[in-house]
């Protein structure tokens, strides 16, 4: 006897489950994927970045939202929870759910060992299919280091790295610059790994 095929969920079923769920899940191709808990460093970096962005964007045409706001990529069907997003002008929400954003301009993901590969590859490809996304920023939780990808007019993405507590993360599509010393305030970095002797 063959295995019973797994029943795929509809978007409506996913959203109904998500409203009642204690923990958040992402959704793609009829399946829900529970989100793993984050480390202390991950949370500290995310909170620092959220506070810094909020303070710098206050009173302007752009605003930031934290990881509790779901994003939908219409072209691929992915529903996900980025760590942070920046929206400019009026936020647009999915017709089927007013807690699902559809037009982020900048997306931030704070990396973790369990999601780094996914954030760098598959998830980035999904974000690229969302026309409103102009920048994608990856933030390390265990060292002062960020990568910023910027969409170019030809559709390619250019990369700039910001490394060290003296560096400043500068966005291109939004006039914001955040010193990494502020992003990593009160973050305890692990000791550097010993280098092998020559």
From TrEMBL:
Gene3D superfamilies: tt1808, chain A
Name of the protein in its database record: Putative restriction endonuclease domain-containing protein
Annotated source species: Urbifossiella limnaea
Domain Putative restriction endonuclease: start-end pairs: 12-175
Lineage, opening ranks: Bacteria, Pseudomonadati, Planctomycetota, Planctomycetia, Gemmatales
Recorded superkingdom: Bacteria
